[in-house]
Amino acid sequence: MNSVKDKLVKDFISECIVVDPSTPASKAIGLMKENDSYEVFAWVGDKIGTVTVRDILKAKNPANMRAESFLNFVPKLSVNTELLQAAKIMADYRLRALPIIHHNKIIGKIDVKSIVKEVKDSALGNIRVSKIMSPSPITVAVGEKISKAREIMLRRKIDHLPVVKFRRVGGILTSMQIVFNLISDLRGDKYRAGVPDIFNPLDYPVEAIMSASPLECSPQTSIKKVAENMLNQNSSYSLVTMGEEIQGIVTYRDFAKLISLGETRVNVPVYIIGLPENPFEAEAAKIKFIRLIEGISRFLPSIIEARSTIKSSSLDKQRKRYEVNVSVRTARNVINYSSGGWDLPSIYDDIANAIRKIVTAKKRIKKRRRSRFAP
After folding, report:
1. Dihedral pair phi/psi, residue 10, rounded to 5°
2. Is a pLDDT exceeding 60 seen at residue 15?
3. Among 349, 337, 265, 345, which residue's Cα sits nearest to residue 307?
4. pTM of the model
5. Is residue 145 part of a domain?
6. CATH number for position 345
7. Domain that residue 321 falls in
């Protein structure tokens, strides 16, 4: 069986929806709802654009808008694009699918569900979900208006919003529920120019359209089991709970990030979890981590696997503080080191220096022991 890094998108092609840029937004929404699809694609000249649920979520009244008003251009993949490269693009740009082109025609898409399936069936499936979840997700309370939930989703760039009642899980609201059930209804005679709105569906309470029985798992659940449940129930998320309290949430994007690798020049598996949204910061972090592993592999030739987890917190809108953990597993033991700071590349430099010192110190101790007992 080929490893994940050897697989190509041609083995994971699925059907996609292609529309003309002039297609009315209401029709595009209808097609997406009918096919339970998060996006549609459209040719514009020699480029391909996508309209996603989150794009439509931004529009308060799409009645007179067309698909071209929402389009964002995305990379075109060939049938020979590596699966890992597709995962990287989807994770970096928060996409759930990318178009696959052959002979200048869209022949289908690579869907993030394919990534989830690959993770499920790989050695990564044994990782606990607590290692990849987004901890302490933002929530909305029962009774809050859908308009507030929508605003939070847009501001935070998220598609899932847990609903709580007295700090307990009450349900979950998704961007697809808002778009397919409410945004698509913002049209027609109810909103004629100059006539006051008869009602605004966005003023409904969140419980009017939320899922009252969300998919849940415990922090100790393996991501293999979580992936199976998400795929079987056609769910794009799973809440991570202890009792009735929310500990975190895992979504399709977390699976894409899990195997989102740069082109490694080391002969060991390298995994990075929690890459920044900014693609330039993400690329810099990957380069630094790969160089770190390249460097210490000279001292630790028996490395089996290297893994890095990045967590960020924001004190203001301008700067983020990062906490980085690096775990290097060798044939004999596991080396863990963590560091924090404001500059991600510098953090990896500090960790690289620290691990080199740890390895060098261990070698000196072994050498002293050997010389002490030498005849």
Report:
1. -60, -20
2. yes
3. 337
4. 0.67
5. no
6. 3.30.160.100
7. 261-371
